[in-house]
Amino acid sequence: MLEFNEELHQYTDNGIVIPSVTQILQFSGLTPDFSMVKPADLEWKANLGTQVHAATALDDEDNLGGYDTQINGYIEAWRRFKAECDFVPQVAEQRVYSKKYGYAGTLDRIGKLGGVDTLLDIKTASIVDLICVGPQTAAYEAASNEQNKRKTKYKRYAVKLSPDGKYKLIACSNQMDLQVFLSALNLYNWRMSKHDRG
């Protein structure tokens, strides 16, 4: 049974730590290098992303009450995206777990985009790293299908929300995305096994 520790941002299965999609991508060097960014700025940005994700999920349920006004523009961008792109959310913030490959994560949305099955990742960073988003969404797709015992082929996208109320939809269509992620996972597992052996 997959469990998630919010404080540690850690997935476990019967006490065994399961690496996350984000952790694997960071380890492999596929995510942007934030080493030059001040820790306080990184923490602020992470908190902002968490707030936006939570608020958009509540908005999808028409249950968005009071929220920090600093995210007004992001909510406006999310609503505009849904209306202009005909996106109908069906699943939000779903934890997924691939026992086959040994990784877990939380996908942002599954829904219909113009009537087509779609898996969507929400981004709030000023720069969306296209190299990372493709493998990330492919990993979520594979884990979701395995967990739910189906073979849905989703259209995969990232939607970049901006504080000025604008959005950008980015397609993730490279057929190698899952293989790239699995290569990163193999590298992660190899490095961890060497570390465990000393």
How would you sum up this structure in a few lines?
The protein is of the alpha+beta class and 198 residues long. The protein has a single domain (2-190), classed as Trna Endonuclease, Chain: A, domain 1 (3-Layer(aba) Sandwich).
Name its key features:
Trna Endonuclease, Chain: A, domain 1, alpha+beta, 198 residues, 3-stranded antiparallel β-sheet
Q: What share of the residues lie within helices?
A: 40-55%
Structural class estimated from helices and strands: alpha+beta
Name of the top-level CATH class: Alpha Beta
Q: Tell me the CATH architecture.
A: 3-Layer(aba) Sandwich
Distance between the termini: 30 Å
Largest sheet: 5 strands, mixed
* Number of DSSP E strands: 8
Beta percentage is: 25-35%
Q: Tally the structural domains.
A: 1
Number of helices: 5
Radius of gyration: 17 Å
Low-confidence stretches: none
CATH topology description: Trna Endonuclease, Chain: A, domain 1
- Give, in spatial order, the strands making up the sheet with the most strands: 4-5-6-7-8
